[in-house]
Amino acid sequence: MSKHHNHSSHDEHVGHAHHDHQVEEEHHHAGHDHGGHHHHHGNFKELFFRSLPIGLIIMIISPMMGITLPLQFTFTYSDILAVVLSTGLFFYGGKPFYQGAINEFKQKQPGMMALVSLGLTVSYFYSVYAVIARYTTGEHVMDYFFEFASLILIMLLGHWIEMRAVGEAGDAQQSLAELLPKEAQVILEDDEVVSRPVSELKIGDIVRVQAGESIPADGIIIRGETKVNESLLTGESKPVEKKTGDEVIGGSTNGEGAIYLEVKETGEKSFISQVQSLIGEAQNQPSRAEDRAQKVAGWLFYIAVAAAIIAFVVWLVSVDLQTAIVFTVTTLVIACPHALGLAIPLVVARSTSLGAGRGLLVKDRHALELAKNADVMVLDKTGTLTTGEFKVVGVTPLKEGYSEEELTALMAGIEGGSSHPIAQSIVDYADIENIKPVSFDSVDVLSGSGVKGQANGKNYELISLKAYGKDINVDIPAGSTLSVLTEEGEAIGSIALGDEIKESSAQLIQRLKDNGIKPLMATGDNEEAAKSVAEELGMDYKANLSPQDKYDLVDQLKKEGQTVVMVGDGVNDAPSLALADVGVAVGAGTQVALDSADVILTQSDPGDIESFIELANKTTRKMKQNLVWGAGYNFLAIPLAAGVLAPIGISLTPAVGAILMSLSTVIVAVNAIFLNLEN
């Protein structure tokens, strides 16, 4: 999925972006018109397969640059058939290239499409002229139908290979809209409850939200208490306690009790709408992706035209018109970028399948080139560097005679009846460790501080460190909170619960530094949690960031001229993923984040970011090599075809030109296959 369906940023188009809007719908990455490589590849596939039989027949009945190859045959009027078939292919298979060329000329940036169109036009019209000349004047003029048909087929194949590799587009804004429920339960003045579409909610409406439902709009709780899971939206890992007077965000999930809320924001001012408009803004920013193949094709276009004009003038003056035309046509046909058309798509296809084997889905090939030159990687904390789940990270005895197992059994027992996330984590931990919870006679909630209960004739409390109020000599693991277990008022043990740092995070941060990429953690979580994780991993951080803050951070880094890779998983990351030069979504995250990104890590493992950087480096190297092989042939062949060395008896005959052309295409294909990742 390239980032979005955004059709407004046409000035930045590069590469093969200029195709038929009817032929295939254009999907851009966040306005990053990354080569427009996100056309609907089904249509390129269709174009290729429909053109294939016609193209093959033309190639079988037309000698290749004047030489009859094995499997080729001609018969009476076979050249007339070639004219008819080529005319159909010219208008059908050639259409996207001509539309692309028109766009390139409009932007005063002739490139691949202009070069292809030039080759197609010259080879087609000169060949038609050659056939007419044979029947009217009787002289044998060589035609180029073989080159014409093979160029169309190879370019369509190249496009289809790349389209298939980079996959389909998705729409982040659409996925955001789907976070909100379709209907809301509105309470009328006579306490009657009616179902109303969320789009018809007005400020001041009173809405009832049951446990487990999505909150339909931004509002303030006027009745009820609950815990709301806002992690998808804010990145905060813990469910947030909410009571009367607290604000809630539309799209978050109501955890426990039923609540009644008064709608405060709808439409454009709501949180989700603001995130949508940030994504829209990001889409309209031009990309820094430089399309090397496009650039090389642009140089070739100018060189071919210049060489053809010079050849025409020189041969016209020194020999005659007929010789001048032959050299000019040969020059322009030789310039056809057969190998260049496959140079990048074959590497992309190989790179994509290698990446997929590692759980890396690369949706935009320019992401690989940009990532190779990254200066800074902005990483979300929750769910990216940490697991995003609240877990027990350590149980510590504080009094002799108590083992970790006994303490865990007591804590799991006292928390057994609660559905609170912290309680649940403790019960799950005991279960995993195969520890049977102690049976408690009675358990009561201590408002705001914890729980108390009786077991075996003794009074126990499991309370927060703040509620306990005394210092205890325990190392608190990074990013975790501590609860203390007391027996008759005396601390006997503590339990640390936290959002665990993923195992591969530390190695990733080190690898980024080794590669000259600065890691920067950007999180919606609080200062304390952010600081402890950042210190443990040895990186800079910014905490308490809203989606707008993250967006501004990426924007600022880009304005400083830095190439930014953003890694995240939540709705709060989506605008920054769309804005960054390369957006990397962690696969366990939200659909919105996945739709906003160029690359998806399906395993949610930070170690995969290392693989992505390696893939970026190796793919970019292969692309450069293939461009050298693909274009090198043209740079050498064009002047020879123009007859530069003809005065000393060296000229590039069409036959030799054709063999070299095929050879460079084979070299490009073989080189792409050798792209590999280390195990």
List the helices and strands and how they pair.
Elements: H1 41-61, H2 78-92, H3 95-106, H4 112-136, H5 145-166, H6 172-177, E1 183-187, E2 193-197, E3 206-209, E4 218-223, E5 226-229, H7 231-234, E6 240-242, E7 247-248, E8 253-254, E9 259-265, H8 271-283, H9 292-318, H10 321-334, H11 338-357, E10 360-362, H12 365-372, E11 376-379, H13 381-385, E12 386-397, H14 404-414, H15 421-432, E13 442-446, E14 450-455, E15 458-464, H16 465-468, E16 480-487, E17 490-501, H17 505-514, E18 518-522, H18 527-537, E19 540-542, H19 547-559, E20 564-568, H20 574-579, E21 582-586, H21 591-596, E22 599-601, H22 607-641, H23 654-673
Parallel strand pairs: 11-18, 11-20, 18-19, 20-21, 21-22
Antiparallel strand pairs: 1-2, 1-3, 3-9, 4-7, 4-9, 5-6, 5-8, 10-22, 12-17, 13-14, 14-15, 15-16, 16-17
Helix pairs in contact: 1-2, 1-5, 2-4, 2-5, 3-4, 4-5, 4-9, 4-10, 5-11, 9-10, 9-22, 10-22, 11-22, 11-23, 12-22, 14-15, 22-23
Protein name: P-type Cu(+) transporter
Biased composition (Basic and acidic residues): 8-34
Keywords: ATP-binding, Cell membrane, Copper, Copper transport, Ion transport, Membrane, Metal-binding, Nucleotide-binding, Translocase, Transmembrane, Transmembrane helix, Transport
Compact description:
The protein is of the alpha+beta class and 679 residues long. The strands form 4 sheets. A 7-stranded mixed sheet has the order 10-22-21-20-11-18-19, with helices on both faces. Strands 2-1-3-9-4-7 form a 6-stranded antiparallel sheet, with no helix packed on it. The protein has a 6-stranded antiparallel sheet with strand order 12-17-16-15-14-13.
